[in-house]
Amino acid sequence: MKFLVACEESQAVTIELRKLGHEAYSCDLEPCSGGHPEWHLQQDVIPLLNEYWDGIIAFPPCTYLAVSGASWLKDQPKRGKGLVGAERRETQKLGAKFFMLFINSKCKKVGVENPIGVMSTWYRKPDQIIHPYMFGDPFSKPTCIWVKGFPKLIIPPKELWASRGEFLVSKNGKRGAKWNWGLPPSADRARIRSKTFPGIAKAIAEQWSKD
Ligand SMILES: C[S@@+](CC[C@H](N)C(=O)[O-])C[C@H]1O[C@@H](n2cnc3c(N)ncnc32)[C@H](O)[C@@H]1O
User: Fold this and answer.
1) In 3D, which of 112, 108, 98 has the Cα closest to residue 2?
2) With a threshold of 0.85, does the pTM exceed it?
3) 62 lines ligand 1 (CB under 6 A)
4) Is the per-residue pLDDT at 134 higher than 90?
5) Mutate to test the pocket of ligand 1, among 27, 29, 57, 91 (most ligand atoms within 8 A of CB)
6) pLDDT at position 186, please?
7) Which residue in 14, 100, 171, 202 is deepest, having the highest Cβ count within 10 Å?
8) What is the mean pLDDT of residues 199-206?
9) What pLDDT is recorded for position 166?
């Protein structure tokens, strides 16, 4: 089958699909870090949505869609590098439009991944919320999946789940996964946090490439 894995620089899903013998291409504005430039389309994904694909799997940017950034939507003086207030709200709308391009593409089978965020109300509730630990990687990260034409992912039985990983508690009592909160600030932090975990990548490839 011919797959487009959109907004994927890690090539995690693309590589798993290739292992299964499929013609899969990752696409990202960034160069790939998965070691297979021959399967990577480094370009804007939008024109590719008009081509024929048996399946599209998309990981659109969540920077302005995730609930974790919601407090920055309020009008407030600018601090640091990120967008705030009206500027952020406008960028959020563009992010939502980009997300919907995948859902509304002519491809019959589409799967979109994003953290918990505004799309759960602006579009609809996700079909499922999964975590990496359910698929064997010892990390917690609520991950929303919306499907059109693909089945929901089959979640392995609890006995096979990995540990949930370590958590940190902030001064105001908020709890967050250590792998995520504990990452030191760096230019690459967002990219590291957004890479698809191997267990989820394998499950997506295996379960969504069955004809
Ligand atoms: C949340 S990250 C997803 C990373 C993915 N889970 C992975 O393992 O590589 C979103 C990605 O979308 C890419 N992106 C943003 N706009 C794009 C566009 N118009 N066309 C292609 N890629 C885009 C970004 O460069 C970024 O790598």
Assistant:
1) 108
2) yes
3) yes
4) yes
5) 29
6) 74
7) 14
8) 98
9) 86
